[in-house]
C-alpha cells in the first residue's frame, strides 16, 4: 500500500525539472550519514502523511494543510539530497589525473 500511495503522490506532484537540475539529478552523490538519516526520516514522514491522506479519502485541493505539509517535506528532502556533493565521474577523475592544472 505504501509504495502505491507514494508513487501516486509523486505522479500527482511531479513537476518538470529545469535542464540544469535534470543533469545534476542523474549524478551519484556522496551522502553523509547525517544527510542519509535526515533523508530517511523525511521519507518515512512523507510516506506516513501520504498513506494517512489516502486512507481518509480526502480530495486534492491546493489549500489542504496536510497536502501542503507533504510538499514542504518533499522540498526539504530534495534540498538535503542536492546539497550532498556530486561524485566525480570516471572521465572527470581521469582528466584531473592527466591534466591537474585544468581540474
Describe the secondary structure blueprint for this structure:
Blueprint: H1 2-13, H2 19-25, H3 33-56, H4 65-83, H5 90-98
Helix pairs in contact: 1-3, 3-4
**Main sheet attributes: strand count, strand direction, barrel closure:** none
| Helical content (DSSP H or I, runs of 4+) | 55-70%
Number of helices: 5
Low-confidence stretches are: 1-18
Q: Between the first and last Cα atoms, what is the distance in angstroms?
A: 48 Å
The Rg value, from CA coordinates, equals: 18 Å
What's the overall geometry? elongated
Instruction: Tell me the fraction of residues in β-strands, as a range.
Output: under 5%
Structure explained in plain terms:
The protein is mostly helical. The protein has one domain (2-98). The chain is built from 5 helices and no strands. It has helices at residues 2-13, 19-25, 33-56, 65-83, 90-98. The longest helix is centred in the middle third of the chain and has 24 residues, at 33-56.
Amino acid at each position: 500500500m505504501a509504495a502505491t500511495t507514494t508513487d501516486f503522490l509523486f505522479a500527482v506532484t511531479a513537476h518538470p525539472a529545469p535542464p540544469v537540475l535534470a543533469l545534476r539529478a542523474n549524478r551519484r552523490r556522496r551522502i553523509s550519514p547525517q544527510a542519509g538519516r535526515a533523508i530517511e526520516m523525511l521519507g518515512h514522514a512523507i510516506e506516513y502523511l501520504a498513506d494517512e491522506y489516502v486512507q481518509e479519502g480526502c480530495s486534492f485541493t491546493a489549500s489542504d494543510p496536510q497536502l501542503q505539509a507533504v510538499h514542504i517535506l518533499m522540498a526539504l528532502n530534495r534540498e538535503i539530497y542536492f546539497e550532498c556533493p556530486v561524485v566525480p565521474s570516471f572521465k572527470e577523475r581521469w582528466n584531473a589525473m592527466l591534466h591537474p592544472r585544468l581540474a
